[in-house]
Recover the amino acids of this structure.
């Protein structure tokens, strides 16, 4: 049976190539590759990483950690501030896998020391300029938190971890390269302050997909944690993290109405399928997704210029097309929409279909 | 066990009052109340509508129609353009419920006539100014589509249906009242053109929550289809559709980090919980959610002024607090976040918890 509703179509060959390429890069730099699994959330796709030698992973929630621990992963970093309300899950996980948690305050260090039933590793989250969370790289409390961990019996300080999410705001490779040097300097400075007081064995972990895609040499750090690169998306294409051929998934959306006077079609494919994330391209156009056409083999063609998803409501997508493309489209055709942000789209659709209609399921969490 | 992760907390008493109030309004105007169930997506909450006499419902997909048909609903409008690729589901539904579909082109009328296995009702979708989909109210093809339906054997033309979604862009009750008069005029004009050629038994159906909440007299039409009003949200509060006490749900989010220098906390509660929808308030501030504090009985207090969700990533929410509130918050506390758009938040979280921790599940579709 063919596609009837908005469906995630995955180019498995390309996703595996993206994995291989990043694994090779990490190997060449001599760093640990600890991919972020929040992007795909699938035990089956996780296996593709095992196939290239990956043993350590990153997730964004304890529930996701439990899912992957149940699928045999033995070394998991939860790249989210430790949540005191989930202490039971933390203890459960620490009993069945090598768990790495993030800390960024003395309060959470003392809470864990008091409530943990066994030892675990912690990393201090450092803010190298993104401004979301973590201890600012030059703040005094970095030392206080390191010293607090050092005084505990249950916590082992493994290293410093940063996420330079501000790289998503840039639009050229050169900008990302310059940003990388800037945040690497801050990250190493934070580490040096700890080295100076005797913490000289700490590892450094970074992970944004733009830096990991655009840079080649990571020998200044010990670990990279990119996630989005497995599929990429319109946002990463706009940044310069990937080329068009490296985007490994689209959402196939049925055309349900045509509006010739505005050269727009309505697709079945809305905010509950694509998410409300968007990109603003270099011409200032806001796009909730790129547009391509299905190919006879079930894959998709090149991204059409001057065509984009201009608006989304719950189930409706409005797609702007150029006149020539508009004329060729009929009701019941599929448009292959390149999502603005593949992580959120996967989280909504929960199931992948390969062009040959083989299904891959996502964690039900 | 208490709340550990982002959790939808529902004030059932208030939701039932919202339902009762809208049902009373419809009754006073002598119009059919056909609530949109895409907001709550729950058979159990659907029962609360049955309890006030509702027999007809609206949904936004055929899968949702199947779910509610399986829960005994016998009169269902799918308020989305009929999708040719789902003809098998349409035939299945038409066999087990009184199905109403939307058409807006001759092509879809002929497709249905050719492929339907039994009769069903259709409504012509009319665009009264929103600009998403539907036949523009003054376009010639309105008559062509009505005539096409009239020539079929399988389709019964029941009426005209509009959704004035542009009401979501307004910020005062007076603006919404003026808009209502404007789109009602266009809607009635469209109908008059069909009356003039002999279609004099058509019903009129409208449905946006702002109009249905702010207006009292619907005697110009035959049916109202609001959905969001069952819970309301920050967007509807900003428009003036509801007052604060009428908002019936929040997302309880654990505080996992504090940043005193910027008077911000990080909550476990991101784009995969709240959605990336946002409101821009009258001061021009972009907010992904309002902030209130939990009360001892498990409900929530008033919305705190100068406090809001300023940014979201996949699992992180950044919450701006005033200094006084910031000082009172500790790691592991819950903040009760009023979602910008409750429909998308419910679709993501899939499960409601009443303050007394009773669970209500959402359709797995």
């Amino acid at each position: 049976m063919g596609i009837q509703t908005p469906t995630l179509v995955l180019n498995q060959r390309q996703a595996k190539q993206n994995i291989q390429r990043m694994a090779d890069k990490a190997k060449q730099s001599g760093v640990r590759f600890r991919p972020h699994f929040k992007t795909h959330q699938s035990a089956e796709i996780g296996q593709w990483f095992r196939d290239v030698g990956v043993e350590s992973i990153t997730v964004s929630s304890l529930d996701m950690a439990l899912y992957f621990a149940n699928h045999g992963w033995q070394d998991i970093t939860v790249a989210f501030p430790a949540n005191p309300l989930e202490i039971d899950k933390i203890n459960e996980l620490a009993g069945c896998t090598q768990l790495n948690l993030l800390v960024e305050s003395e309060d959470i260090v003392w809470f864990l020391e008091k409530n943990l039933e066994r030892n675990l590793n912690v990393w201090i989250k450092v803010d190298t300029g993104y401004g979301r969370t973590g201890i600012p790289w030059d703040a005094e409390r970095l030392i206080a938190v390191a010293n607090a961990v050092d005084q505990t019996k249950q916590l082992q300080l493994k290293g410093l971890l940063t996420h330079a999410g501000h790289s998503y705001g840039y639009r050229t490779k050169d900008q990302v390269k310059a940003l990388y040097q800037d945040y690497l300097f801050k990250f190493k400075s934070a580490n040096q302050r700890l080295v100076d007081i005797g913490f000289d064995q700490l590892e450094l972990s970074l992970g944004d997909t733009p830096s990991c895609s655009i840079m080649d040499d990571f020998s200044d750090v010990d670990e990279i944690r990119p996630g989005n690169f497995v599929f990429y998306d319109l946002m990463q294409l706009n940044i310069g993290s990937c080329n068009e051929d490296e985007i490994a998934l689209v959402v196939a959306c049925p055309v349900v109405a045509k509006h010739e006077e505005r050269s727009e079609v309505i697709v079945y494919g809305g905010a509950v399928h694509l998410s409300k994330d968007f990109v603003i391209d270099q011409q200032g156009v806001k796009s909730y997704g790129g547009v391509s056409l299905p190919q006879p083999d079930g894959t998709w063609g090149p991204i059409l210029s001057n065509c984009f998803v201009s608006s989304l409501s719950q189930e409706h997508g409005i797609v702007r097309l150029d006149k020539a493309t508009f004329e060729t489209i009929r009701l019941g055709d599929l448009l292959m929409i390149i999502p603005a942000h593949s992580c959120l789209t996967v989280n909504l659709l929960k199931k992948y279909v390969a062009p040959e209609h083989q299904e891959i399921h996502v964690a039900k969490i």
Remarks:
- Chain A touches chain B through 54 residues (CB under 8 Å).
- The longest helix of chain A spans residues 173-196.
- The first strand of chain A starts at residue 7 and ends at 10.
- The mean pLDDT of chain A is 96.
